[in-house]
What does this fold into?
Amino acid sequence: MKISIRSHSSLALAALTALALSPQLLFATVLPANYAMPAGTVNTNQPGFRVRPYQAGTIGSLSAAENQQAGLYGANLADLTGADVNGYYTVTTVVNWSGTGGTVDTFPPGDPFPGIPGNGAVPTEQFSEQVVTYVEFPAAGSYTLGVNSDDGFGVTASVLNPKDLSSAINLGQFAGTRGSGDTLFVVDVAQAGIYPFRLLYFQGGGGYNLSWFSVITNSTSTNLVLINDISTPGALKAYATATVAPPYPTAFNFSPAGFSFVIQDDISALVSSSLHVQLNGANVTVVTSKVGSATTVTYSAPALLASLSSNVVTAQFSDNATPSHNLSALYSFVVPTYTALPPSAALPPSAVDTAQRGLAVRVSQIDSATYGTLAANIAHAEAQLAGVLIDPASGTPYPDTATPGPQPGGSYVITNLNFSFDPTTEQGAFTTVNGYADAPFPGIAGADNANMAGEVL
It folds into this structure.
């Protein structure tokens, strides 16, 4: 049994002081009544949370954690022993986890993170935990919630399905990295009920812990109480599952050539014939393809969308539940600045050797031990590659110490562009894990990694 009452202490006073003084915490976020789950649809006999650990690539922000959970950084390396077929554990107690079993805010010692046992078999960094649940608010009113995290987190509430980010209201977050610390946020609940909640946590490196709680005050004390700590009076209850979970849109992407998004089935599935999509208020024809439980929706514009244009995409669809749910999604985006290539710039097919796929790379380097570290800008690199970067001491071009490649002009032919000066320490989203091992820069040898310039043709 976990007892999680915290008496009126200096730490609690500090937390409430932060609540009072921080401008972002002065105003409550309203949780509308229509976000409450329909009566009888939440399994109140199954307390707790569903938790999906994911570990891949390198993360250090909330947006990167979303990408990781979406599978954009490679296969999941977390330990899924005991998880369901979708990679979710069921936790029936509280969210109070620590990599070392340490304590925060006088809560009991933290349990291990689901899927991250800390026994050496699974690395204890670069992972995220997606926590979905249904939180019961017994009465309308203002509630102060809090998360103690190392590193960051975000808490949202959605309509009918906690995983539906298209309808999500951001309630509280710390989007970057930090040591263990509290973030408090106020939620105004318009109507008593049970609401779908999602907490996304990420750990970039170093220490790691996560505790999710509410702040309960009365005339004599201030208590920090873990959510779903049912042994403590006043604790908010949380439930792991519901009988309703409609399909939800995710993974929206756009370019000047159009856009795409995915509708992910859940307990109920998309009725494909019900899908209607508009761009800037006009109906558009989309192409759909379904793999497993995910339907990809793609729109190809007949002409490039204008550079810097603002656009709004709306999608309406229904599911196969009885009765069905009428669902919608709204996306807005601004096309980035671009320069359109004129058709006259295209090479005739006969001028391209289509049997030799890849890229031509030419590199140049100036010895930093002799000449020092030179300026780093595009004009400097262009002059260096052209061989006209002049050494003011001699009045002649700097010598190029790079080894030229075997192709005309001294270039190398490569299959993909993923270079690192030290390939043994892989960085970024593309690594051996997802099939893109770092490669050394062609033509560059030795320990000098300064004064390099290159062009890709």
